[in-house]
Transcriptional repressor NrdR (Desulfarculus baarsii), 157 residues
Amino acid sequence: MKCPFCGDTENKVVDSRLSKDASVIRRRRQCLACDQRFTTYERLEELATYVIKKDGSREVFDRNKLLKGMMTALNKRPGVTAVMVEEFLDKLETGFQERNLREIPSRELGEAVMNKLQEWDDVAYIRFASVYKEFHNVEEFKHELERILANRQTGPA
């Protein structure tokens, strides 16, 4: 580790401490050239999960992008809190880790979000679905509304 004071790379570790959640190690180091002390932090490099888009391109999974989309769909809708959305996204990400997924199709993400939104609020669902499913006209919108209403009457298939 390069000393921030003199640039020398020879130093010794004087003290090491694990963070409360065991995700970071804090190390106090002492430079052997200038005798100054400095602190370094060591953390595990996170493995990125990639989303495979409809066109086959890949992008790094962005939790905030999903959060923003869900919160936009839920805007001014009663009963669903930001905490509920955060907890859903936590479970979604935990599922990636448990399944050891490094790539996930955007379709799978979209379906999971739509299922949760439909469970919470039909209006939020239709708002999200209209963007996700790329409705091009009123007929497509109407068809989705009719499907929701039919499910209400008969129960989910």
The mean pLDDT is 88. The radius of gyration is 24 Å. The longest strand covers residues 11-18.
